[in-house]
Amino acid sequence: MKPLATYYATLNDLPDTEFKVEILEDGPIKKISVNGTIYDVDYNVGGDTIHSIIMNNRSHGVQITTVGNSEYEIKNKGDYFLVNVVDELKRMRMARSKSSVIGRQVITAQMPGVILKVYVKPGDEVKAGDPLCVLVAMKMENEIRSPIDGTVKEVYIKDADKMAVGDKMLVVE
Question: Among 70, 92, 114, where does a domain finish?
Fold first, then answer.
């Protein structure tokens, strides 16, 4: 079955895990494939951010808020997720730009929260993937990692600092 649309979703808590979401059938009940597993989904908007989703005969009242260009904050029964959803074209563009992450990297908060722990100080050498700090958002600890090999040039944060989306945290180059 040829999909009507294909999207790729990543969760900030699992940055190395990508979910391939394909819309197989549109209509009152949508047929959706997530990484090859097919779901029947009934979906209704019940307000600005409240969505009623019935999936495999289970009802979910989900709050979905747009927080960025392709980023969504999802709350479901006390669980919080920050999800990035892109289509195939944007995914290809991002893959091309990711392969050339070089030079000065300004790391910003991708979600509101509180700094639990800062692991680095200016002058520290880091490798791509090394943890730089922990940002707590909605009771979930999110480890922020270095995007490149380099030296920590600036640290704008300290333990217990409150962060808003887009606040500068660190610079690595």
Answer: 92
Check the CA dihedral 18-68-49-63 and report its sign. positive
| Mean pLDDT for the stretch of residues 151-167 | 94
Q: What is the pTM of this model?
A: 0.53
CA angle 139, 133, 99 (to 5 degrees): 110
Instruction: Give SS3 for 112.
Output: coil
Count CB atoms within 10 A of the CB of residue 40. 13
Structure token pair of residue 66: 């747009």
Is residue 100 over pLDDT 60?
A: no
User: CA angle 154-158-160, nearest 5°?
Assistant: 155
What confidence score (pLDDT) does residue 123 get?
Answer: 97
Structure tokens given for 105: 């990297």
**CATH assignment at residue 151:** 2.40.50.100
Nearest to 145 by CA among 8, 10, 14: 14
For 23, the domain range is 5-92
